[in-house]
Specification:
This is Ice-binding protein C-terminal domain-containing protein. With about 130 residues, the protein is of the alpha+beta class. It is built from 1 helix and 7 strands, in the order βββββββα. The chain has one domain (about 1-105). It has a 4-stranded mixed β-sheet, with no helix packed on it. Strands 5-1-7 form a 3-stranded antiparallel β-sheet, with no helix packed on it. β2 (about 15-20) and β3 form a beta hairpin. It starts with a strand and ends with a helix. About 10% of the residues are buried.
C-alpha cells in the first residue's frame, strides 16, 4: 500500500499520522508513519513525505482491522492529511457500502405540498383580518 503525508501545519505543532492494526486476538499494533517533527518521517513545516510504501506481515489466522489516523496536535486550525493508494484486501461486510438509490415517495411529496398550501391559506387569512 502507498501513502503520502502532507503537513499543513508548522512547528511547534506536530499532527502525526498512524497506521493501526488490530490483530485477531485484539492486540493493537501502532506504527507512526510521519509527523511534522518527531516520530516517523519528519517532514517539517508544511512539508510532505512523498509516496511511501507500508506493508505488514500478518502472522495470526483470522480477521484483522486496520485504520489510518492523522491527528491535529495542540490546535484545530490547520489540518494535515494522509493520502492512501493501492490498498489491497477484502472487506466484510462489503465495502464501500452499497449506495442507496431511494427516491422520495409521491405520497411524501404530496404531504409536503399540502402542508405548504395550508401555510399559504393561513397566511392569506391572517392578512385579510
Amino acid at each position: 500500500m502507498a501513502w503520502d503525508y502532507v503537513a499543513r501545519d508548522y512547528i511547534p505543532y506536530n499532527d502525526p499520522s498512524f497506521a493501526i492494526i488490530i490483530n485477531p486476538d485484539g492486540t493493537p499494533v501502532i506504527d507512526v508513519l510521519a509527523s511534522i517533527h518527531g516520530l516517523g518521517i519528519a517532514v517539517g513545516t508544511s512539508g510532505h513525505s512523498g509516496w511511501q510504501t507500508y506493508s505488514k506481515t500478518l502472522t495470526q489466522t483470522g480477521a484483522y482491522k486496520i485504520a489510518f489516523v492523522t491527528t491535529n496536535d495542540k490546535d484545530t486550525i490547520l489540518d494535515s492529511a494522509l493520502f492512501l493508494d493501492n490498498v489491497a484486501g477484502t472487506c466484510n461486510p462489503t465495502c464501500p457500502p452499497p449506495i442507496s438509490s431511494s427516491v422520495p415517495e409521491p405520497a411524501s411529496l404530496a404531504l409536503l405540498g399540502i402542508g405548504l398550501a395550508g401555510l399559504g391559506v393561513m397566511r392569506r387569512r391572517k392578512q385579510m383580518a
